[in-house]
Amino acid sequence: ELGLSITDAQVSEMESHLEDIDFVMAAEEERKLRHDVMAHVHTFAHYCPTAAPIIHWGATSCYVGDNT
């Protein structure tokens, strides 16, 4: 609706994996990246490969940390 190239399939893929939180994988990613938010972005992208390119759009670690 806003002109961004986000497909219904990408949205559906993310919705279908909302509860699939792999904390072990996220911890491994955090050790590699040394960034907690990006570790979860990468972990979520693993479960949502079609949506991976758009997962981080519009959200920064400051947004997540400061506004939640």
Give an account of the 3D structure.
This is Adenylosuccinate lyase. The chain is mainly α. It has helices spanning 8-16, 23-33, 36-47, 61-67. The longest helix has 12 residues, at 36-47. The radius of gyration is 13 Å and the shape is globular.
Q: Please provide the ordered H/E string of secondary-structure elements.
A: HHHH
Estimated share of beta-strand residues: under 5%
Broad structural category = mainly alpha
Mean pLDDT, rounded to whole units? 88
Largest sheet: none
Distance between the termini: 26 Å
InterPro entries: L-Aspartase-like
Protein name: Adenylosuccinate lyase
Subunit structure: Homotetramer. Residues from neighboring subunits contribute catalytic and substrate-binding residues to each active site.
GO molecular function, one term: lyase activity
Layout of helices and strands:
Layout: H1 8-16, H2 23-33, H3 36-47, H4 61-67
Helix pairs in contact: 2-3
Features:
mainly alpha, Adenylosuccinate lyase, globular, lyase activity, lyase, L-Aspartase-like, 4 helices
Short description:
57% of the residues lie in helices and 0% in strands. The protein has helices at residues 8-16, 23-33, 36-47, 61-67.
